[in-house]
Amino acid sequence: AELCSSVRKEFELERAQIRHDVVQPVAALTAALDRLPSRLDDPLKRIVKSEVLPYLESYAATANRLEGDLS
Question: Please, which domain of life does this record's source organism belong to (predicted)?
Fold first, then answer.
């Protein structure tokens, strides 16, 4: 039980760090993209979809798997 608690605590710290490292910059990027002229929407969406989204999906899958393992 103590080991499980320790692992869960470590996971929560890692998740908070990843949220800081990933989620906040993505939110800032989204806000910046919203301010760009609409004529740039399609090229930027293609770039984000091909370059950024796979990393975010991978992170989400890993976080969900780890959370499931700790449940």
Answer: Eukaryota
